[in-house]
Design goal:
about 15% strand, 7-stranded mixed sheet, 3 domains, Metallo-beta-lactamase, Chain A, alpha/beta, 6-stranded mixed sheet, 13 strands
Length: about 400
Amino acid sequence: MNTTTNTTASTEQEKPFLIVGTGTETVAPGLHILRGQGQSFVAETDVGLVVIDAGPGGPVTQGMIDAVRALSDAPLHALCYSHGHVGYNAGVPMWLAHAAQRGDAPPRVIAHRNVPRRYARYHETEALQHRMAEIQFNRPAGFFDRRLAMHAPTETFDDRLQIGSGESRIELRWAPSETDDALALWSPSQRVLYGGAALIDSIPNIGTPFRTMRDTVRWADTLDALAALGARKAVREFGATLEGEAQVRHVLTHTARALRWLRAEVVRLMNEGLNERETLARIRFPEELFGVEWMKPTYGDPGYIVRDIYRSENGWWDRNPTSLHPEAPEAIGQAVADAITDKRGVIAQAAALAREGRWQLALHVIDLLATARGDAPELVEARSLKAECFASAHGRCPATCRATCTA
């Protein structure tokens, strides 16, 4: 993630992802959704414009700048990072250049105090971060080398930061959720909340297959704290705006309650002595908590949350002595394949399970052969069948894992 970047490069230039459209939508006087990579936000204050997220750069960020200028000619007072995931603020240099071209003072670049620490970790693991993004978003090798630029904020805050005064003032509030550096924007006078990464139109994306653990209870605490504000409108990072104080409170507290139920239930099963897979097999998600529209697994998945909670209290060992000191994956795959004399029978059994729609069992069976290297006809056929099983089950996967399924 180079800090020196081609600011005209954009993830939109080939295939857009996480791009929700263009333009703005006014949710209250002086408060606007700004569409780009996710739904950003603009607040008109007495000291100037406050923009949440600069966008990924290139045409997306330029469209965001143009949309803001269609709203107001006021100077840009501050750019604020909704959270520390790279990409959302790769376009900072374009906003700074825009302010300079207008003859305005450089805007403040504000983030939560945990963002610099996250950026330091991302710099250290740069190649890993690029590879994970390539797989998650189905991009070729090297695609993100110049597209995940990080730009350090010029100032940070801890829990709360007020910008402006009077009726147009806004508050930045620490809202740890998807990341430990996420923020929300609150307009006290108009009772409008921008929830940022804490508020999406899916079950929270805790336990994503490629990312570090996210704190389930802390996310619930954040939602309860935001609900207590009494917002009349709540803007999500993704999804439709929540309208009305009762609806805002209901969605936020319901989600928090579901997350707390998950924590309590996983702890109960762990205390019974169940391991991770046994917990996943036993747990049942109550329809009244997880059947509502905003808890559907379109981005996150309740099973992933179970795994994160389990890992928060356990080490990596799956309780199988064989896994304590494993051989290399290619050696295991080859040894298993060599031990199977009836390879056609394995393929036939996996194919039969697939025809019955039992995709996951089919995958477990076919992996007896599909993980072995080589170009023997049975191994090639096994890998092909595995790909077909993933393709058939594709629609059941949340967005956070679809690319990993086909990698």
